[in-house]
Amino acid sequence: MVSVSQPKLPIINMDDLKAGNEYWMLTCDKVTRALEEYGCFMAVYGRVSKELDKEVFDSLETLFELPTETKIKNTSDTPFYGYLGPNKTRPLFQSMGIENATSLDHVQHFTNLMWPSGNHRFSENIHSYANLVSELETVVKQMVFQSYGVEKYYESYDKSSTTYLLRVNKYKPAKIGELNVATTSIHTDKSFFTILSQNHVNGLEVQTKDDKWIPVEFLPSSFVVMASDVFMAWSNGRLRSTRHRVMMNGQEDRYSIALFTFKKGITEIPEELVDEEHPLRFKPFNHLEFIGHHSKSPLYVDERAIKLFCGV
Ligand SMILES: O=C(O)CCC(=O)C(=O)O
Ligand SMILES: [Fe+2]
Predict the structure, then answer these.
(1) What is the pTM of this model?
(2) Which superkingdom is the protein from (predicted)?
(3) What average pLDDT is seen over the chain?
(4) Which residue, judged by its Cα, is nearest atom 1 of ligand 1?
């Protein structure tokens, strides 16, 4: 009997890693191959405790129950980075953005807008969560640089050269009998990296190289680590920027958290990643200018956007 197996995301254990030992080297290789083949993988990462995870996701329920006039106070200078309410194309979706979420001051600013009489616990939890998840991003990035033998450039991509946007999302299920709307359209992220987590309700789907869709089933203590357009460009097209979407088909609310990372200053493709087989595909560019440009005129929502912006 021929069995047609459903493709699955690679699962990589990211706990107990120590730079330089044999297990680290093996994991570097696995991480880079996964990002080349799928653009993403499921990271098992126990540093975010079950208690913290539960408190954070419980607090999102309370956050989205706030009145709309409070939620719209979440604004940003960058279009689409603040509160997004339900609209005609996405009637079941709401989202809020916490800029610089690894800084306690910035999280507190957001919290004070939402709860003027204070919610210290929320600030502390979100701040810890963002920092723990950002550490996973740091390790994965270091591994890829090491795998390609270009560690010498890592310093200008480290934490001090990165900004973080924590976006929290709520997806309501369609009512029985209603048309099941695709909840987000197919896109790639405009970040460097995106790290995703969710409550117990699945819905994320990622597209493979041969255009199949993988429905992602999150494991306990796991995060989906995704290379986005800017990391793909930095790697001169070696890494994939994963096309993905969210499809809701259950009857429960889905909450997800995305930590998007952005590179400050100029991104330049390391000369070591340019050769006859891989001619230069992207000119040096400024990530934040790409974001500004893209949010004003989003001609494409997939990886064609960055090709248009700085492709050779
Ligand atoms: O909710 C998710 O799992 C994915 C969200 C997403 O793709 C995005 O915010 O760019
Ligand atoms: Fe996305």
Answers:
(1) 0.95
(2) Eukaryota
(3) 94
(4) 256
